[in-house]
Amino acid sequence: MAEIAPFRGILYKPGPTASNDVSALIAPPYDVISERERKELAARSPHNSVQLILPQDRPGRGTDDRYQVAAETLRDFLHTGVMARDEQPALYRYHQIFTPPGEASAPPVVRRGFICRVRLHRFSEGIILPHERTLAGPKADRLKLKRATRTHLSQVFGLYDDPQREADAAFEELEREEPALQGKTSDGVTHRLWRLTDPAAVAAVQRVLAGRSIYIADGHHRYETMLALRDELRREPGYCGENSAVEYGSIFLCNVADPGLLVFPTHRVLHSLPGFSLDALLAKLVAHFRLEEAAPPASGAEVRRELQQRGAGGPSFLVVSGGRAVYLTLRPGADLSVMSGPAVLRTLDVTLLHALVLEQALGIDRAAQEAQTYLRYIKDTSQ
Q1: Which of 222, 269, 302, 216 is nearest to 379 (CA)?
Q2: pTM
Q3: Which of 126, 284, 340, 383 fits as disulfide partner to 361, beta carbons 3.0 to 4.6 Å?
């Protein structure tokens, strides 16, 4: 089953009299950063991690120069002491403290997990498992970045099932101490990081994970890129077999039983569809969904409440177009024979949305979805 290990991470290095606050240096994941946000992050500090995860081409150097820029930037950060590789291998306890998107008055949520290295396995081996299709474009981008930097600059987000929270217990004493690093990103999330170096505690966490599979919650593109890079590096001179560092990737692991594990929806924004008609779309969907037109919602919180209530009766969606709002709820006994895959997957919201609405009703095939020809993604319900 899953094999995890401590590693000597590369971290920002506060000076001897400096605070452990790295707010000016850290950034949200690369794939949620807009161009405007990138500029704001870069203005915070010349050492902000956006320079590594979302580099820019230099004028006149070509479209792939950005990856060499990231490699040179990382070398500079290490040479000047902005960042340093830890001397001792560790598992890195990691807390994310946040409020639900669009609900600033809600009580804060603490999501707990840890960062480690994990032995890479293809999905067919059944040890590390996916839940979504990937797109060719993001994989090509991340592979070029990894080739240039030879570094995993951000983690895959993985889940494991530990109902008794045995692995969490190994970090309890450590969490009473001041974090090694902490800070707040521009999206309002507070991050705290500790190093677990005690061999007995590390071994206890490894024993828990050794009997479990890992499910990828986010970062499928990054994981598949890690596999591709591993396969490339296996062919290089000096490869030293199954214990080589190239056999491992970087992952953040969160227990399914963690009270702070909340999953929020990613919304699909459709645009530029030739001849689109909302009425024509609804006429196609009525065979599978109950339709109810409503007043356009006033807030993201209202949408979430309404969909939570409707979702109790079956998978539900809200379609908003041209000032109209229509709720869709899957009809009991709807014919799902047009959908492929195991029966358990055919009732998932995301599967139904893509198969019945995007592909069958709107004709947006998988190739167009991969190219994001008519599609983009937004995570904040208020947006």
Answers
A1: 269
A2: 0.81
A3: 284
